[in-house]
Amino acid sequence: MAARSKAKRDKAKNGGGDQQPQEKLSGKAYERELARLHGELVKLQLWVVGKGLKVVVLFEGRDGAGKGGVIKAITERVSPRVFRVVALPAPTEREKSQMYVQRYMRHLPAAGEIVIFDRSWYNRAGVERVMEFCSDEQAKRFLEMAPEFEKVFPESGIVLIKYWLEVSPEEQTRRLEARINDPRKVWKLSPMDLKSYSRWYDYSRARDDMFRATDTPWAPWYVVRSDDKKRARLNTIAHLLSSIPYEERPREKIVLPKRQKPHGYKAPDYPQKFVPELEWGKG
Q1: Per the domain annotation, does 112 fall within a domain?
Q2: Rounded distance, CA 89 to CA 179, Å?
Q3: Backbone angles phi, psi at 115, to 5 degrees
Q4: How far apart are CA 12 and CA 207, in angstroms?
Q5: Residue 56 pairs with which residues in a beta bridge?
Q6: Which residues constitute the domain of residue 114?
Q7: Nearest-5° angle of CA 41, CA 211, CA 150?
């Protein structure tokens, strides 16, 4: 009994919590639920545009936690002009000389936009701190400043939603190993990922400090258990939809107009260059 209790405590310290395994979600059930949620996201999109809302959704988590998959699931059926994804590269020398949050502020939404940050200003609390790209004093100052910075969001009419994707050490290892020999995923694995992988507990300490300092009533953190990718995507979308009150906007019934007659038009005799039509599925 004592051994089991200690294991639970250790798992909670690692960030996984006492998560009970769930029945594996079939691909068919996942696609059905995802299609339903995509329909709701379209309704949300029309509501945000119609009402001129401004929304920021940011995703943080360890390498391999599944941030990209969740963001893709959110955005694959909506307009990129409304749902804008921001994934900034390393700062330039000029940006390093600016106020820290300055390069993020220019991406904040105007009316009718939802901006999704694939990593955000919280880089300073996580990767920059752990990989020693900033000083301890800079990281400490950021944690003091962030709540005040985020207090401006609701005062400016911006809805801010913060997600941390929590992956277990075992699942992170499995995912990173899967990237090594997969030509579709090898671009996701950088020397920085390998270095950060070895610092699991440094990241755990940084995450814990970040939560303590920046989990506020006006900008709380929501933790998504992401060992099960499919459930994580569905749970996140459902939570996002529940976090922004919206209604289905009335729309006129769409009827395609009649297509015009050719009025003498003839296709030109032009040597067009067609893409070769290959034989697929026989290799």
Answers
A1: yes
A2: 21
A3: -105, 125
A4: 13
A5: 115, 160
A6: 27-166+196-243
A7: 60
| Total domains present in the chain | 1
Identify whether 146 is part of a domain. yes
Whole-angstrom Cα distance, residue 61 to residue 67? 7
Q: What residue has token string 């015009």?
A: 260
Quote the CA–CA distance of 151 and 154 in Å, as a whole number.
6
- Please list the residues that pair with 164 across neighbouring strands: 60, 223
Q: Report the alpha-carbon distance of residue 48 to residue 51 in Å, rounded.
A: 5
CA angle 231/240/112 to nearest 5° reads 140
Residue type, 4: R
CB 176 within 8 A of CB 64: yes
Residues 6+ apart with CB under 8 A from 98: none
CA distance linking residue 64 with residue 66, whole number of Å: 5
From the list 56, 89, 34, 54, the residue with the least C-alpha distance to 229 is 34
User: pTM higher than 0.70, yes or no?
Assistant: yes
In whole angstroms, give the CA distance from residue 212 to residue 208. 6
**Is residue 89 in a domain?**
yes
User: pLDDT digit string (tens) for 179-210?
Assistant: 888 888 888 888 887 888 899 999 999 999 99
Structure confidence at residue 60 as a pLDDT band (50, 70, 90): very high
What CATH number is given to the structural domain containing 158?
A: 3.40.50.300
Residue 181 is assigned to a structural domain of this protein:
no
DSSP code per residue over 93-144: HHHHTS-TTHHHHTTS--TTEEEEEES-GGGTTTHHHHTTSS-HHHHHHHHH
